[in-house]
Amino acid sequence: MKELAALLSVSRSTVSLWVRDIELTEEQRAFLRRRMGGRIDGARVNTVRGLERRRKAQSSGRRRAKGDDPLHLAGCMLYWAEGSRARHSVEVVNSDPAMIAFFVRFLRLCYRVPDSKIRVTCNLFADHEVQQREIERFWLALLDLPRECLRKTAVNRFSKHSQKKRVNKLRYGTCRVTVADTQLVHNIYGAIQEYGGFERGEWVM
What we know:
The protein is α+β, with helices and mostly antiparallel strands. The chain has helices spanning about 1-10, 10-20, 25-35, 40-65, 70-80, 95-110, 130-145, 180-195; strands at about 90-95, 120-125, 155, 175-180.
């Protein structure tokens, strides 16, 4: 793929998209092994295998998107708008309790994500500091999660140059929901592309 990208003056992600459905013959595999001195480097093998797993997960997500599931559609569109673009984890950050609660419901109902895999991180402002425990309890209760799911809260304290204009801007700060699961995030990426009718090769790299 690197050689093709250089030859055609395109990105490797574009080449990856073009050739993703092509299976190498045994003769082609043997040729590649000979070029690499009779062996394939372990790190390279792992990279190739990881890429193939991500592609399969995205293909599965595309098939899922062809069903009639409004919750799945809404959850994927929410992730497209508000989610991170991490390769190995699902992550959404927002200050709207209803949005965060909806996204967790999507994970539970559409992907059967267990509570033990969900991580919650609160990000608070200086005027929230005295309410930190109360706000943490609010998010955990809203999401029906045990305290074991809570990660260390970040508090953005006022600098000496601040005019303290952010007071009472966000009642509960922001909440980050994270699930470390490569297959899950790429399943969602595949579904987003199917729903949106576009291809984004760099999402699989």
